[in-house]
Amino acid sequence: MGENEASFPNTSLQGKKMAYQKVNADQRAPGHSQYLDNDDLQATALDLEWDMEKELEEPGFDQFQLDSAENQNLENPETADLNLDSIQPATSPKGRFQRLQEESDYVTRYTRSAPKSNPCNFCRLLKILCTATVLFILGILIGYYAHKNCPSNATTSGTLDLHLYQEILKTIQAEDIKKSFRNLVQLYKSEDDTEISKKIKSHWTSLGLEDVQFVNYSVLLNLPGPSASSVSLSSSGQCFHPNGQPCSEARKHSSQDLLYSYAAYSAKGTLEAEVIDVSYGNADDLKRIQKMKNTTNKIALLKLGKLPLLYKLSLLEKAGFGGVLLYIDPCDLPKTANLSYDTFMVSLNPGGDPSTPGYPSVDGSFRQNRSNLTSLLVQPISASLVAKLISSPNSRTKNSICSPLELPNNDQRIVSMQIQTVSKFKTVTNVVGYLKGLTSPDRYIVVGSRHHTAYSYYGQEWASSTAIITAFIRALMLRVKRGWRPDRTIVFCSWGGTAFGNIGSYEWGEDFRKVLQRNVVAYISLHSPIRGNSSLYSVASPSLQQLVVEKNNFNCSRRAKCQETNVSSVQIEGDADYFINHLGIPTVQFAYEDITALEGPSFLSEALFLKRATKIEEMDPFFHLHETITKLSGEVILQIANEPVLPFNALDIAIEVQNSLKGDQPYTHQLLALASRLRENAELFQSDEMRPANDPKERIPIRVRMLNDILQDMEKSFLVEQVPPGFYRNILYHLDGKTSQFSILLEAWEHCKLLASNETIQEALSEVLNSINSAQVYFKAGLDVFDSVLVGKN
């Protein structure tokens, strides 16, 4: 458009110059004009004069009277000797065009009467009229049948895309996922993850995925010590391992499970002190306990759940505790779960390589000495060991009513805990493969699964994750081999080091941060897809919730049994963490859960139980749940990768913000006013820009690209700098499905209970206010940009 506009003034100027030359034809002297010196321009002037003479001779111009010399030339065009002198307007000092305008009697003096009868002219007019009529009718017929045979772009595009997606997804079969799963679980027994990584890379390459590569990082891992940790009762001298078995009997059972019942990056050593039951360790619990007892250097008996573990440990550390015995109350688990003697692992690492916080672990990076990330000695223990410590035989009564485990207030228990861990630098491997986009190769949809990492617990959820991503790659590449490609690039990642704090994904994210911030439009998580078998639970960014609901309802309509869609924006475990909290990228995750688990306390998934492959197959014996997760995730991936306009909903973000400020919350009047302005701008953006762009008839490529750039960066406004440990920096995500308020505001109000000060709440309110203001300014700036483009075009 710019080039065309730039050429118009030059063309007009040139036309004015040529007209000026003809008007003053008799005044120009040879050699005084570059135009006359040029033979081509002289010929051009001659042609223009000749054309004008013929036009003046047409009936519509009143039959201008020509000189005898000119009449001769016109009557004998084949024999006439054309020259400049014979056609120059020499009879007047003014050119013919100027005279027509300035001399009113010129036409009268130089006209002749039209003949009364002219059969030749009549025949000519009749021929022209007939020809025009035939061409007009033919054009109508061609246009009608062309429109009839070619449906609208919107209908064709939508129908073809939906058909294409179904063609790709129908090749995904549960039996293939099952075979892949069983092949993968045979590899975990290797001493390191090299064999598994090589297997994944080889398999993805054989399927046709492009540029599959290893991305390795040398990171600091905190590993189990040579012997299992232990807890001893000082009163009786009895020694127990974390699963509740006496130390003397441990040799008779598998010691591997005992070794991996530990807290990675905990402080190590020995501590003997009184045990204080702090329940879930929230602000109310600690306030109540500190009124009754001195907590300095004591051992806290802490239940997992309800709040992030790192946050609760930070409160205990501030309260002066020296150690923590961590467990899961059986009353918080489904009745079918019998985990009384099961041990588990937790990681105290907020994310990435602890030795390079905030920057990638590449060669030459400075390494910090951070073998432990807390001053607390933290030891996960089983519920059976807790029962022994508090002298409670069972947590359930005969009437099947669960009685929570708790230590009586008047009882005193002194125990000795010993923790042995070893910190070593090890290589963590990511497997990354690409399917390059056709029209927007610089825009990425990242799909993340995980694989087993050496030296970590050997649960089998990773095999489900890897089998699902591989099944989708297989289906996708079958279509690619037939010549199709998505519009945007799809990046497939199998992360290493997840159990230690999402180390592989964090390091890769920090390594390519600038590129990812600019180019990634969405992250699809396949972290732990099968955690139960009774309810499909979806987690999505506010901007993607509408898409998730649509896909779930569509897939539900194809099944006999349909469940109510359960989708929310809550904190989740896994490698999506970096993309949500540091890059502000819209994220989706589908997973099957137990309904009772959803109804129970949140954050129980922070415990990594040693699930065997048989347990996964018990939950999904025919792998139909695996197939459903693969197809749901695949359809979302395809739509985001292929739709001209990203299927994100700006208005849903504004509505989520308003909902997060509902309820009896103090100091939120200013926030509500700002949230109202955010919604107004989001509504304008949605109606004025997004709706027209979704209509192919109004779709302009440059405007679509501008619109997509705005859509993919919407959530970045809600990243805050300072949050409590374990809380998301992206404040659009709530702590769990039971709370709808901003998590940092909830924590600030809880913090006020401990310190009796409103300084923390004021800081949190300021963070939220700045985020909302940034978002509404962002939408308004987007509208202004589009307005500027329209003004420029006009």
TrEMBL record:
Matches recorded under CDD domains: M28_PMSA_TfR_like
Regions that span the bilayer: 125-146
Underlying gene: NAALADL2
N-terminal signal peptide: none
Protein name as it appears in the record: N-acetylated alpha-linked acidic dipeptidase like 2
The species this protein was found in: Panthera leo
Domain of life according to the entry: Eukaryota
PANTHER family to which the protein is assigned, alphabetical: INACTIVE N-ACETYLATED-ALPHA-LINKED ACIDIC DIPEPTIDASE-LIKE PROTEIN 2 (PTHR10404:SF32), N-ACETYLATED-ALPHA-LINKED ACIDIC DIPEPTIDASE (PTHR10404)
Region listing for Disordered, in residue ranges: 1-38
One cellular-component annotation, GO: nucleoplasm
InterPro entries (alphabetical): PA_dom_sf, Peptidase_M28B, TFR-like_dimer_dom_sf
Keywords in alphabetical order: Membrane, Transmembrane, Transmembrane helix
